[in-house]
Amino acid sequence: MRESQYNIGLDKTPANYVPLSPLSFLARSAAVYPDHVSTVYEGRSFTWAQTYERCKRFASYLAGKGIGVGDTVAAMLPNVPAMNEAHFAVPMTGAVLNALNIRLDAPSIAFQLDHGGAKIILVDPEFSSVITDALAQMSGPKPFVIDVDDAVFKGGKRIGEIEYEAAVAQGDPGFTAIPPEDEWDAIALSYTSGTTGNPKGVVTHHRGAYLNAVSNILAGQLGQHPVYLWTLPMFHCNGWCFPWTIAAAAGINVCLRKVEPSRIFDLIKAHGVTHMCGAPIVYNTLINAPDAPKANAARRVVGLIAGAAPPVAVLEGAENIGIKLTHVYGLTEVYGPASVCAEQPGWDELPAPERARMKRRQGVPYPLEEGVTVINPQTMQEVPREADIIAFCRSHMSGFKTPKAVVFGPIPKTSTGKIQKFLLRNEVGSAKAITA
């Protein structure tokens, strides 16, 4: 094979190639927008310069405790500033962040700490009891415990050897981050419950975190300097990569310890929240809250909603309280969202029920996702796409019977196997036409 001229003398060098890592987002925002607010939480606030310094200090402290490339640092924390900072400080040392699900029991946590080999764990006082039990149930070496106090939470106790702010204060603000040698290097370890046996570990890398963080900006239309409310747990797929996303967009992290409707509405108003994420149950809770703002009283917020196709009632209800939803779908294994309902021009002019029906769909690849498809698990063959199905129906059925859209999902049936057509009609809003 003839060697191409473009392969001669054009090797990768530090001047023309750097492995992708979301750590660069923090460094850039601190340099370009040092005085822009990065984080707010219960009366405290930090700028991007301050957040960068805090992350370097904590990374320095971790390095001083022997943490380095390939080590694991776990975190049992709600959506507080320390949890956001851990997404940068831990990988700055070359280590891997294991964000633990705060809803798990002691045996599950003990398994993950053993399996992941955590050498250090950050613990919020609310979870001191379950972590104490988990540590007692571990079979391997126990991690060094760092307490992360929170004045908002009343209760719990310290179980560690040092408190987080003291550890940050001990660190060197001049610490130099250790970038990944290869963008394929691990940045985070997560666990999925699976259907059988112990939780299954999922390792994600710097490249994927970088790409999905940028994809979030594009798919969610975050723009520059978004104000992001943390209604989505940071332990869930690393908050769908949004700690890194908000750093890339030089936005504001509005931290939230617990999902409480009244508190959420207050924060939206007080900080001018522009974006949020969550599961259908979160938005349903907000929609049905007695103090939910209505119509013109509601501030406009863009929300990403994940999981199965949200009911029309949720999409319409969210709009009524000022939240414009975009449906996304993904997995822990793909860094959170991997597909999105890409809204088309003209949808805003559609009647609310029709607009909601269209926005229930998802399945096109995320902006920086190379491809997404749907496979039949029995045959492992790609299933027909919506346009193919509609074209097939048009050529084999009367025109008025041809579907306008196709929705994939479980078909509701009675215990005897009879299809519950009324539920299908309600799901797509066709029942209104029958009862009109």
From TrEMBL:
InterPro entries: AMP-binding_CS (IPR020845), AMP-dep_synth/lig_dom (IPR000873), ANL_N_sf (IPR042099). Keywords: Fatty acid metabolism, Ligase, Lipid metabolism. GO terms for molecular function: ligase activity. It comes from the Bacteria. Gene3D superfamilies: N-terminal domain of ligase-like. Residues 27-386 form the AMP-dependent synthetase/ligase domain. One of its GO terms (biological process) is fatty acid metabolic process. SUPFAM superfamilies: Acetyl-CoA synthetase-like. Belongs to the ATP-dependent AMP-binding enzyme family. PANTHER family: ACYL-ACTIVATING ENZYME (PTHR43859), BUTANOATE--COA LIGASE AAE1-RELATED (PTHR43859:SF4). This is AMP-binding protein. It comes from Bradyrhizobium cytisi. The lineage of its organism: Bacteria, Pseudomonadati, Pseudomonadota, Alphaproteobacteria, Hyphomicrobiales.
